[in-house]
Amino acid sequence: MTNAEYIARSLEARGVTHVYELIGGMITFLIDSIICHTKIQIVSMHHEQGAAFAAEGWARIKGIPGVALATSGPGATNLVTGIGSCYFDSIPVVFITGQVNRHEQKRDKSIRQLGFQETDIVSMVKPITKAAWLVNNPDDLPSILDDAFRLAISGRPGPVLIDIPMDVQRHFLADSSWNAEIYQQPQHAVSATGRSAYLGEIERAMALADRPLILAGGGVRSAQAVVEFRSLVKNLQIPVVHSLMGVDLLPASDPLRVGMIGSYGNRWANIALSRSDLVLVLGSRLDIRQTGSDVVGFSVGRTFFHIDCEPGEINNRVIGCNPWQEELAPFLEIAAKVLPNHIGLRSPWITEIENLRNEWNDTDELRNAIGINPNELMHAISRHTKYACAYVSDVGQHQMWAAQSLDLAPNQRFLTSGGMGAMGFALPAAIGAAIAGGPVVVIAGDGGFQLNIQELQTVARNKLPLKIIIVNNQCHGMVRQFQESYFSGRYQSTLWGYSAPSFFEIAKAYGIAASSVSNCNDVEAALSVMSRDPQSPYLLEVLLDTMTNAYPKLAFGRPFGEMEPLSKPLEMEGT
After folding, report:
1. pLDDT at residue 556 above 90?
2. Prior bond to 323 cis, omega within 30?
3. Which structural domains are found in the chain, ordered by start?
């Protein structure tokens, strides 16, 4: 068989059911081999960035590597933002790009380009992939493909890229067998004695703590350790705060779920963290969006135990943590068996947190908002979309409102672009998520939605079960709020020089049912109409007052737990 046919059959053997692409000359052999020799479904997108995000969304739901294809030159470079998103959020995706024939490559010639669209994509993406290969020896391709899939899920998961010249794709393999293994997350050898001693330290510290907390991040999900995590929490009975990437680790109904911490975290969760005396950090890198700029103030008065698979993430910004490097799944499984049940149960502490929640209710943060209250909107969305397998949020103020106030059921997911913070993520990522798992709710802002609005055609053509909610405030709201705080209300490019169309009318042009709502009294009825048929696409435009801010927000320069608008920042935030 040819290398192109080998790739197609090997992808199918590894459990890949869909690939995402935008057609181009250098991947025509790959596309043709897939349709001729496999049952894999090809999902044609309308921009390569959309293909990358869709493969990421599919991988997040499925838990195995997604696949995106692109042609050489602009096709390959258009993948870069999606590749970076996968790298920063630890998502396993195999990116395959076509390249010009080997005899058309400039190699060591002192010229910019020889073949049409020839572009050295491998050098460009090496800093944001776990590995990237240009396949110059046709017989190397099978082993490279094996390495790519194995590496994508080993250790901290992430993206890989294989760049394949057209003549290499057409090459006939001497050995036409392939490895049909579906790789599982490998486990690294760990000293049982060392782990036992570390767990003993945790047990002794927990026994002495009055206000223990678990801080859970996206690494729990990346490690596919949610079952083990929930078992540990149930056994220990320790309240849990989470990062933006850990929103879906515990359902909203779990009494031990406190809320989100960080820059736009729930006020009661940040206050609880500021009052804690012991924090067990699981799969979170404690970045500035979680801690604020005052790292010393964040750390003082509490003991940290920090578990992560990458040693570089521990004692990086928050110094003085008790470190342990291990894959989370086996660590959590052992911890749930070894640590005493209910060791973290402190009734006065749990009551204190509940009182904080009642005192600082999320919907009261914007009690004086003009028109629709966005936090109330998120609770209403949750009530009407219990059928959804996932909520996929874009990047902006709406992302924070969603993370603060969505009420997730036990099996519902929350997907967003964390480390990259890529506007335009939600719609294409939701396409992949819906194909992988069923009905999905998209929550986007008017600014970010326009970055990949063309993928509405992909939704319409494939009749995908997406409920698209656009929170339209007619501006780039998060940066406008930043300008309000630090630039005396000079709203250049967020409000001045910016505009948005009627998304309701655009959806109709794509053949997607749509409606618009601007009155808070009409929200429930609009959501009811939207959800009437969970299997059909629908777009709901929610008009919000332009000057609505996302609160609470850490007051940078002040002690952790002090938040706007009650406290004013003393310094400009660093990110």
Report:
1. no
2. no
3. 3-170 (3.40.50.970), 192-359 (3.40.50.1220), 365-551 (3.40.50.970)
